[in-house]
């Protein structure tokens, strides 16, 4: 009898009693939305949505992997959901020297967000398409033309997400700060107050900039965060004039903008996300053994961040070439690999090649006496069609001809 049968309702990660929800073996947003590869009643909701989502979001939208994702993957979990890249800071300088808010869209093309910049003596409206600007304005009018305008600020509180919600009441033609509450769930139809990284703060000559980085979303950056009311008043006053006098729109920008992007690259969150994917494959492959003590350490690292995982990122093209050879286009590849350590002990490692460029390696267990996997196993993940395929070593070898011999000698 396996251990799942003796304790059926325990989370494979935290050993909690649930409730449970379906966990994708490979993240849906990275192309793994394949219903044949779901862990059902194995991962609890607290681990799945409370812990995993946060670091998975970092891997997906802020890391090196997110560059591959926006360049090669047409859509995320669903057809409507376009991959996004969220750099720490993105600067684009126009002909006039304005530092604009910009993001990236498919194919790594720069997309200038519709935005309002307020300087001490002038207001600028910038967008690349009139239609985009119109929907930005109507969203803004909707948000500002209510009795209360909510400004949300995400707090840096570590594991649990908390938000300050500042309420501004409009009366006698002016916005006045009325109250601030603290919550775990941000309200809808609000404006996000984003901070300007210290390094670039003194390069931003404006008082404030209000922009929309995705449809329906409004973000605000201020050189002085205590002056939200002043900024709201200025925008509110300017809005009716803009709709009457579209000549004042600045609707185009320079053909050769100067772009600077600061992004995260790789972090401990990325290590945890990659280790979690690796462990999910192990659960899928042989669920009973994942409760063994041999995996206590990796589970603790995934759940809490300590002990710190060894850096999982590899920069060795020949290693990738040996292990995965030439995997099919538009596929990620994962290899679960037992290694004989002698004296009846074995280790279990997982190598992963994401978007054909990012190679990672995670040790799931070191020198265990239990027999984990009898043989190496490959998974290919078609991130365009969301199809996962399991291949034995022989099958993978026949199709793609890797050179694992050199890997064993490492
Ligand atoms: Zn759990």
Topology (elements, then pairings):
Layout: H1 3-6, E1 23-24, E2 38-39, H2 45-61, H3 64-72, E3 89-93, E4 99-100, E5 102-105, E6 109-112, E7 115-118, E8 123-126, H4 130-144, E9 148-155, E10 162-171, E11 174-183, E12 191-194, H5 198-201, E13 208-211, E14 218-222, H6 228-244, E15 258-262, H7 268-286, H8 296-304, E16 313-314, H9 317-324, E17 331-342, E18 345-354, E19 358-368, E20 377-382, E21 387-392, H10 393-400, H11 404-408
Parallel strand pairs: 9-12, 12-14
Antiparallel strand pairs: 1-2, 3-4, 3-15, 5-6, 7-8, 7-13, 9-10, 10-11, 13-14, 16-19, 17-18, 17-20, 18-19, 20-21
The structure holds zinc ion.
Describe the structure.
- It is a single chain.
- With 410 residues, the protein is of the alpha+beta class.
- It folds into two domains: 3-69 and 266-408, no CATH class; 89-262, no CATH class.
- It has eleven helices and 21 strands.
- It has an eight-stranded mixed beta sheet, covered by helices on one side.
- Helix 2 (45-61) crosses helix 7 (268-286) and helix 7 (268-286) crosses helix 8.
- The longest helix is centred in the C-terminal third of the chain and has 19 residues, at 268-286.
- It binds zinc ion (ZN).
- Zinc ion (ZN) is lined by residues 11, 13-14, 16, 44, 46-47.
């Amino acid at each position: 009898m396996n251990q799942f049968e003796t304790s059926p309702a325990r989370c494979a990660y935290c050993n909690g009693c649930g409730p449970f929800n379906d966990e994708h073996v490979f993240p849906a947003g990275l192309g793994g939305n394949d219903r044949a590869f779901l862990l059902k009643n194995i991962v609890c909701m607290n681990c799945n949505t409370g812990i995993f989502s946060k670091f998975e979001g970092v891997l997906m939208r802020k890391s090196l992997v997110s560059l591959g994702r926006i360049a090669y993957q047409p859509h995320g979990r669903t057809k409507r959901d376009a991959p996004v890249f969220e750099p720490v800071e993105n600067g684009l300088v126009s002909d006039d020297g304005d530092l604009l808010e910009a993001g990236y869209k498919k194919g790594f093309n720069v997309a200038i967000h519709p935005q309002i910049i307020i300087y001490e003596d002038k207001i600028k409206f910038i967008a690349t398409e009139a239609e985009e600007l119109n929907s930005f304005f109507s969203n803004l009018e909707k948000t500002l033309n209510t009795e209360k305008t909510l400004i949300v600020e995400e707090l840096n509180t570590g594991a649990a997400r908390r938000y300050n919600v500042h309420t501004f009441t409009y009366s006698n033609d002016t916005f006045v700060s009325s109250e601030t509450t603290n919550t775990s769930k941000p309200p809808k139809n609000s404006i996000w107050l984003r901070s300007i990284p210290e390094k670039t703060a003194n390069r931003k000559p404006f008082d404030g900039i209000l922009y929309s980085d995705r449809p329906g979303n409004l973000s605000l950056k201020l050189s002085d965060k205590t002056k939200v009311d002043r900024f709201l008043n200025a925008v509110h006053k300017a809005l009716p004039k803009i709709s009457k006098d579209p000549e004042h729109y600045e609707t185009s920008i320079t053909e050769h903008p100067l772009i600077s992007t600061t992004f995260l690259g790789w972090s401990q969150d990325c290590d945890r996300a990659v280790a979690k994917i690796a462990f999910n494959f192990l659960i899928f492959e042989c669920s009973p053994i994942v409760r063994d003590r041999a995996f206590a350490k990796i589970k603790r690292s995934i759940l809490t961040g300590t002990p710190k995982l060894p850096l999982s990122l590899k920069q060795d093209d020949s290693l990738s070439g040996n292990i995965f050879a030439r995997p099919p286009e538009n596929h990620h590849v994962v290899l679960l690999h037992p290694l004989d350590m002698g004296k009846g002990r074995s280790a279990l490692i997982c190598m992963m090649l994401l978007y054909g460029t990012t190679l990672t390696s995670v040790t799931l267990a070191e020198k265990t006496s239990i027999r984990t996997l009898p043989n190496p196993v490959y998974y290919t993940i078609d991130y365009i069609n969301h199809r996962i395929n399991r291949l034995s070593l022989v099958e993978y070898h026949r199709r793609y001809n890797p050179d694992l011999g050199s890997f064993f000698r490492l």
